[in-house]
Amino acid sequence: MDAGAAATFEKLFGHPARVVARAPGRVNLIGEHTDYNGGFVLPMAIPQYTQVELRPRGDRTVRAFSTNVGEQAGVQEFVLGQETPGRGWLDYVQGVTLVLRREGFTFEGFDVRITSQVPVGSGLSSSAALDVCLLRGLREAFSLPLEDVRLAVLGQKVENDFVGAPVGVMDPMACHLADGGAALFLDTRSLSYERVPLPAGVEPVVINSGVAHNHAAGDYRTRRAECERAAELLGVPQLRDLTEADLPRLNALPDPLGRRARHVLTEDARVLATVEALRTGDLAALGPLMYASHASQRDDYQVSVPEIDMLVELALNEKDVLGARLTGGGFGGSIVALARTGTGASVAQRIAQAYSKRSGRTATVLVP
Ligand code: ADP
Ligand code: MG
């Protein structure tokens, strides 16, 4: 936690907190940019989490403080019913209260202090960790009858409808329903999900490139629009509805729509194949699937950057790494790799050191 950690809840607000809620960041093992196409994803929780401490106030005011945005931001305030977008990080808090009220939930104002270990803008979903733990905190503080899948869907609504981030449903579903021991195999169309444990013999490695996806929102929006246009031209409701038999038809689409659709079609198939490999303990199948996913993101979906490609190549040079790929929305962020159990920590250190030497940037090992 940073310098703001000294500003305890009691110092900030003059009374102790009543409720504490947490939600982890997530790493996606495979299934990238498939969620807004109705497809499959396979995220896991990471150990780093976001926490809210909260206390109902008995009036209509919300006061919020985050230790992660610099103390100069101070305590921010708004009044329930007067949420106004355009206030930076506070939009996540305002979005939560607005969306909850629109859905018919009743609650009063509150004081909230936010702390997080999830790096922001690194492809590990600090935003959904924040939405989800705010929703969990308010659910508990005001006994809101909010069941689990609905809570995650409301997290997505906060980002889509208030913050203005056109994200899919994977992130809040993962931050709310995944855990660190198993991957969450999620069908983003039906929202049915299943936990798939990692087989003995592999452990995840997550390394942040230090390149934040600052201007990714515009590119993300473009990719989404390209997918919608490709689906329209192909005459399917969503790219999820394509099958392998459609692959030849993609060549007839104008560039880059064909490549975008090919990424989504092949990525969905790779998620299913990965789930099968995890279930059967077929470790040899995992690496090629992860690397094919990376190549598809780099060449067809065009969301990688040279620093991420470098990390992936360094990972693949390690004999104990089975596979590696860009994880998260891209344009920077982090890589995920699967390493042989017991080797993850040393492998990750070597990759991070070699990366610093070559790129001049600092990589951060987040897992293990
Ligand atoms: P990510 O990939 O990390 O989710 P996003 O761009 O989707 O990246 O979300 C990052 C934004 O979420 C930040 O710019 C900030 O507005 C908000 N955010 C995330 N975590 C926190 C936090 N602990 N405190 C305040 N704002 C946060
Ligand atoms: Mg996010």
Small molecules held by this entry: adenosine-5'-diphosphate, magnesium ion
Mass-distribution shape: globular
CATH architecture of the largest domain: 2-Layer Sandwich
What is the terminal separation in angstroms?
Answer: 19 Å
Short description:
This protein is α+β, with helices and mostly antiparallel strands and 368 residues long. Helices cover 40% and strands 21% of the residues. Strands 1-3-6-4-5 form a five-stranded mixed β-sheet. The protein has a four-stranded antiparallel β-sheet with strand order 10-11-9-12.
Provide tags for this entry.
368 residues; 2 domains; Alpha-Beta Plaits; binds adenosine-5'-diphosphate; alpha+beta; five-stranded mixed sheet; 21% strand; four-stranded antiparallel sheet; Ribosomal Protein S5, domain 2; binds magnesium ion; 11 helices
Task: Describe what this molecule looks like in 3D.
- The chain has 368 residues and is an alpha+beta fold.
- It has two domains: 3-187, 2-Layer Sandwich (Ribosomal Protein S5, domain 2), CATH 3.30.230.10; 198-367, GHMP kinase, C-terminal domain (Alpha-Beta Plaits).
- Helix content is 40%, strand content 21%.
- It is built from eleven helices and twelve strands.
- The chain has helices at 9-13, 90-102, 126-141, 148-163, 170-177, 216-234, 247-250, 257-280, 283-299, 306-316, 344-359, and strands at residues 19-28, 40-41, 43-56, 61-66, 76-79, 110-116, 182-187, 193-197, 202-208, 321-327, 334-340, 364-367.
- The strands form three sheets. A five-stranded mixed β-sheet has the order 1-3-6-4-5. Strands 10-11-9-12 form a four-stranded antiparallel β-sheet.
- β7 (182-187) and β8 form a beta hairpin.
- α3 (126-141) packs across α5, α6 packs across α8 and α8 runs antiparallel to α9.
- The chain is globular.
- The mean pLDDT is 96.
- Adenosine-5'-diphosphate binds next to β6 and α3.
- Belongs to the GHMP kinase family. GalK subfamily.
- This is Galactokinase.
- InterPro entries: Galactokinase, Galactokinase_CS, GalKase_N, GHMP_kinase_C_dom, GHMP_kinase_C_sf, GHMP_kinase_N_dom, GHMP_knse_ATP-bd_CS, Mevalonate/galactokinase.
- Residues 275-356 form the GHMP kinase C-terminal domain.
- Its EC number is 2.7.1.6.
